[in-house]
Amino acid sequence: MAKPDRKLLKPERFLATVAYDGTDYSGWQVQKTGHSVEAEIEARLSRILKSDIDVHGSGRTDAGVHSVGQRFHFDAFWPHPAKHLLLAFNASEPKGLLITDLRRVPAAFHCRFSARGKRYRYEIYEGWPSPFEARYCHDTRKRRLDVAAMSRAAKLLLGRHDFTAFGAMHGQGMESENPIKDLRRLDVRRKGPRITIVTEASGYLYKMVRRLVGGLIRVGEGKLPPARLAAYRDERVISAEIPTAPARGLFMEKVLYDPRTLRPGVRSR
Fold first, then answer.
1. Enzyme catalytic residues
2. Which stretches of the chain drop beneath a pLDDT of 70?
3. In this predicted structure, what is the pLDDT of residue 8?
4. What is the pLDDT of residue 4?
5. Is 260 among the domain residues?
6. Which of 78, 89, 162, 218 has its CA 20 to 30 A from that of 176?
7. Looking at 113, 143, 163, which one is the last position of a domain?
């Protein structure tokens, strides 16, 4: 029996979850200088599938930001189980990057526009972390942070608001992005010398998570009262008073979707 002509077959849409160490990457998006996560993924898939593959991410991460749950979709012809493509991808030189889940999704699904929210985690270490942890946390050296005050400030920031003050002046299309975001979760937890901040929202402005963390750190240092952080948000003015926390402590945790949009045959909303 003759094999079907691939040119006559319609490609399918695949959704992938990727984990990566962002230390040695120039960020997610393909750039003229530096090696990006997106470029590495496209190169591997193109070699395996023997055709040019374009991937579409759920969002962009800066240089140095890590991921355990970044997601992307792409269209390809692959007449085999999705897990075989996952194994072929991961059999390549790791380079701090691994696909942890791969599945077929409806053609109408879009990794970015179908998302209902995102979750990030930020790691802080009080003191000097070990050489095996330093790439994955922001260290405070000898400074001790007031986690109770940080938690109070975090609660004041929750809700649907204009978060212009926690965005960046420019970059990644922020100029045209809606600054109204629903901040559903902003938790601050301590376990020994490690402080973990977990945030979940309908979406984030460029560098918003790192500036939220930077503001909370200022509160923890006693340099800013909790109420001032909420007032700063309401003023909707970007200021150097709120620093941007280093990229190395930030992890993309999860992209949230309505499960119905992931089922074959169901139209993505």
1. 62
2. 1-9, 169-176, 264-269
3. 53
4. 52
5. no
6. 218
7. 113
